[in-house]
Design goal:
By secondary structure, the protein is an alpha/beta fold. The chain is about 40% helix and about 20% strand. The protein contains 11 helices and 10 strands. Helix 7 (about 225-245) runs antiparallel to helix 8 and helix 9 (about 275-285) runs antiparallel to helix 10 (about 290-295). The longest helix has 20 residues, at about 225-245. The protein is globular.
C-alpha cells in the first residue's frame, strides 16, 4: 500500500530537478511512497534528467506530460494548478504532498515525521503536518528561515491561523488524500500555494513541526517591480476564490487579505492598464470587484468611489 504520493511539478528545470528528486528519493521511511511528476511541456533537458535519475536509482519516476503550443501564451498559475490537479487524479497514496521541481527537502526524515503525526490521530482534525520553510536565495546561496518559531510546535487552529499573517506553504504540508472519496470542488485554475492549504483547512486544523525541513528556491526582486505588484494583485484576487470555497470563513479571509487591498489602494496610480492588462482581465473574469476597480479608479463614478473608500476603511479598521 502506498502511504504518501509526492507530486512534483516541472517546467524547464533541468538545472534543478536532480537535486529535487534526490531529496525525495533519499527520504528514510518505514512505509512505501511514490513520486509522480507532472511536466508542463518542458523544452529543455528536464525530461532526460528525470530519466537519468530513474535509471541510476531504480526508483520509478512516472511522468505525466501536459501539451504546450509554442505559439500560445499561457498563464503560469493556471498551468501549474492544472498540472497539480492532473497529478492528484493519478495519486494512490493515503496522503499527498506537493513540491515544485526546483525546491527540495533538507531533512531526510521529513516524510516519516509528518506521517507519524497523521497516523496517530483517529480524528480528521489534523489535515496537514507542516514545518518551517527555508528560502534558498540562488544568487547568494544563502538559506533564510522564513518564519522562525512564530507558529511553535503542535496543533494550530485553522481559523486563527488563516486570519493572521502566518504562512505555511503547501510544499511544507502533508495532506490527507480526501479526493479518493469525493469530487474535486476547487477551481482547477487556482489550485496554487495558499489556496491549496485553505482548501484542505475546511476539514480540520494544522499540526506544525517547528523545524525547517523544506527549501524554497527564491530570487530577490525589487519591491517596485511589476512582478511584485502582480503578486499582490493575484494574492488579493485569491480572497474571492476563498469566498467560493468556504464562505463561512469570509471574515477570516478578509482579515488575511486586508493589507493587500490597502497596498493596491496605495498603488492604484501605478497600475497601468496596459502593463497589467492580463491581471485586469483575470480580475474581471473572476469577479474580483475591488481589484478590478483599482485599474480604472479615475473612471469610476462618485458612488463607486465611495464604495471603494468604505471598503478601505473596513480594511484599516479590521483587526484593531
Amino acid at each position: 500500500m502506498i502511504k504518501v504520493s509526492v507530486l512534483i511539478t516541472t517546467y524547464n528545470l533541468e538545472k534543478y530537478i536532480e537535486e529535487t528528486l534526490y531529496s525525495v528519493i533519499n527520504q528514510v521511511t518505514d512505509f512505501d511512497y511514490e513520486i509522480l511528476i507532472g511536466d508542463d511541456g518542458s523544452t529543455d533537458k528536464t525530461i532526460s534528467r528525470i530519466k537519468e535519475v530513474e535509471k541510476k536509482c531504480g526508483f520509478p519516476l512516472p511522468i505525466y506530460p501536459m501539451k504546450r503550443d509554442a505559439n500560445e501564451k499561457y498563464n503560469p498559475i493556471y498551468r501549474a494548478s492544472r498540472n497539480r490537479v492532473n497529478l492528484i487524479s493519478h495519486a494512490k497514496g493515503e496522503y499527498i504532498t506537493f513540491l515544485d521541481g526546483d525546491d527540495f527537502y533538507i531533512d531526510k526524515y521529513l516524510l516519516q515525521k509528518q506521517v507519524n503525526v497523521l497516523d496517530n490521530t483517529d480524528e480528521h482534525s489534523i489535515i496537514g503536518c507542516s514545518c518551517e520553510l527555508m528560502c534558498y536565495y540562488e544568487k547568494t546561496r544563502r538559506f533564510i528561515i522564513s518564519h522562525g518559531s512564530v507558529l511553535g510546535e503542535g496543533i494550530i487552529n485553522s481559523k486563527k491561523y488563516w486570519s493572521g499573517v502566518k504562512w505555511v506553504p503547501a510544499e511544507c504540508c502533508l495532506f490527507r488524500n480526501i479526493f479518493h472519496n469525493m469530487n474535486f470542488l476547487m477551481s482547477k485554475d487556482y489550485f496554487d500555494d495558499n489556496l491549496i492549504t485553505f482548501y484542505f483547512m475546511k476539514y480540520g486544523n494544522i499540526y506544525h513541526i517547528d523545524k525547517a525541513m523544506v527549501a524554497y528556491r527564491q530570487n530577490m526582486t525589487p519591491w517596485k517591480s511589476k512582478s511584485n505588484l502582480s503578486q499582490i494583485l493575484y494574492n488579493a484576487m485569491d480572497y474571492y476564490e476563498e469566498l467560493r470555497i468556504n464562505p463561512k470563513w469570509r471574515w477570516y479571509s478578509f482579515q488575511r487579505h486586508k493589507n493587500q487591498f490597502l497596498l493596491l489602494w496605495k498603488e492604484k496610480k501605478n497600475l497601468n492598464r496596459v502593463d497589467y492588462d492580463e491581471e485586469e482581465n483575470i480580475a474581471r473574469k473572476r469577479g474580483c470587484r475591488f481589484v478590478e476597480q483599482m485599474f480604472c479608479y479615475d473612471e469610476l463614478n462618485f458612488a463607486a468611489k465611495m464604495r471603494c473608500f468604505v471598503f478601505i476603511l473596513l480594511c484599516r479598521c479590521a483587526g484593531k
